[in-house]
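User: Quick sanity check before I run a bigger batch. Here is a single chain. Can you write out its predicted 3D structure?
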Amino acid sequence: MRVRVAYVEEPPFYWTGAGGSATGADIELSRVVLEAIGATIDYQLVPFEDLLTGVAAGRWDMNVPIFVTPERAERVAFSIPVWSLGDGVVVRRGNPTGVTSYAAVASSGARLGVIPGQVQREAARAAGIDDRRIVEFDSQPAAVAALLAGAIDAFAATTVGNRAIVAAHPELESVDLEPHAGAKPPVGAFSFALENRTLREAVDAQLGGYLGSTDHRRRAAAYGISDAEIDGALA
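Assistant: Done. Predicted structure follows.
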């Protein structure tokens, strides 16, 4: 059985490594799970905004984990959750615009970079950030380049992903955004075409016995994903 898996450029979860091969925490998780069911895997790099439409249309079989939302769940079928992550921003060192929350971005007049289709864009709009100050980028590297060039003041993504950005760019720093009162960090999961029940159930069966195991935690920790970010998905 051959399984085609789509991914995007978002370290430490998934990115194109040396020699052009897909790598990252979620790439490794997909390999563990799919090889356990006897699959041969083909990884395809795609734009983030194509993930849902592409898997739904059968252009590939499975997407790497992304945040689960009710709107997305109407278009694709999600696996059981694999991680739970809070939002954060990357800013220039010293946080000159004083960003600590989406509301702070709204009141400061800062320009916020986002990736189209990701949950951070809707969180920013819900907090009252004017659309004219939300700047969209096709990829994480493009957003980071804009931040370094001063074209934006902050880039919103996951706290884990932002830590990876800062590790590569010491002139930047990561700020964990204050959550809404009583809100729990959202979960992420693999996704499939709604009708692809056989593959989804096979993946879920493997995930159910592997997530939270010693091997899983060890592999995830190597990419900076903590026990808390795993346990939040298992709760």
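The longest helix spans residues 197-210.

User: Great, the batch can go ahead then.
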